[in-house]
Amino acid sequence: MSNETTASDGERKASVIVVGGGPAGLSAALFTAKNGLETTVFDTDETWMHKAHLFNYLGVGSVGGSEFMATARQQVDDFGVDRRQGEPVTTIEIVDGGFAVETADGIDESDYVVLATGADRKLAEDLGCEFTSTDVVDVGVNMETSVDGVYATGAMIRPEEWQAAIAVGDGAAAALNILSTVRGARFHDFDVPDDAGRVFGEVLAE
Ligand SMILES: Cc1cc2nc3c(=O)[nH]c(=O)nc-3n(C[C@H](O)[C@H](O)[C@H](O)COP(=O)(O)OP(=O)(O)OC[C@H]3O[C@@H](n4cnc5c(N)ncnc54)[C@H](O)[C@@H]3O)c2cc1C
Q1: CA-CA distance, 164 to 187, in Å (whole number)?
Q2: Whose CA is closest to atom 35 on ligand 1?
Q3: Which residue among 162, 166, 170 has the greatest number of ligand 1 atoms within 8 angstroms of its CB, and so is best to mutate?
């Protein structure tokens, strides 16, 4: 991988909490974990993907929604995401320089929060994110909300254009913006063919 964001000795890694593990949330988590940020995903597995079958996801001929999710989960797990399946996030508070994210199991803190809870916009509302006149969370192309460090992605930012490919793009855009902010320069996650050997070398050798 060409652009890993690694913390040098003694330097704390930036951390990201993603709320929601559908296509939008897992896409964000893939990019941030793959590039060295400490990444946690909380998910309650009510993704619409369990009702879907994809014929319209470019590059994929035909795949069941649940099967798509199983592959996506394996992919983020392989890149080191701490995926907390079955743990609903109840509240998010802004604390000194970051966020305190509460579940029934306790409180986790992070520098950034990516909201990816489908059409459920409650956490965004509680955090004080601005909404548009069509009552969706107001973001720009980088998925930044009006609250510093909080990103919103997927179904919650669109009145109707609900497609897996769009949600995955939103998650990627949020993650790249976080990575650019952490690094202080525009970040590109560009891999080249030799990276496949490095990443999957042991698997390919088997
Ligand atoms: C019947 C049906 C068919 C569809 N067919 C297609 C299709 O053919 N092609 C296509 O591209 N799209 C299709 N879609 C749409 C597609 O499923 C959505 O666009 C996509 O799932 C949206 O992704 P998302 O990540 O924004 O939200 P979701 O996939 O809804 O994921 C949100 C996740 O957040 C979790 N969550 C919510 N609140 C919390 C919380 N407080 N704490 C922790 N986790 C939380 C939920 O459990 C869920 O797992 C279909 C949808 C439906 C309903």
Answers
A1: 24
A2: 20
A3: 162
DSSP letter at 13?
P
DSSP secondary structure code for residue 137 in this structure: B
pLDDT tens-digit series, residues 105-123:
999 999 999 999 999 999 9
Q: How far apart are CA 117 and CA 47, in angstroms?
A: 9
Sorted by where each starts, the structural domains of the chain and their CATH numbers stand as 15-205 (3.50.50.60)
Which protein residues are within 6 Å of ligand 1, measured from CB? 19-25, 42-49, 51-54, 56-57, 88-89, 116-118, 120, 154-155, 162-165, 167
pLDDT in tens, 12-52: 689 999 999 999 999 999 999 999 999 999 999 999 999 99
Q: Ligand 1 centre from 6 Cα, in Å?
A: 31
pLDDT digits (tens, 9 = 90+) for 144-160: 999 999 999 999 999 98
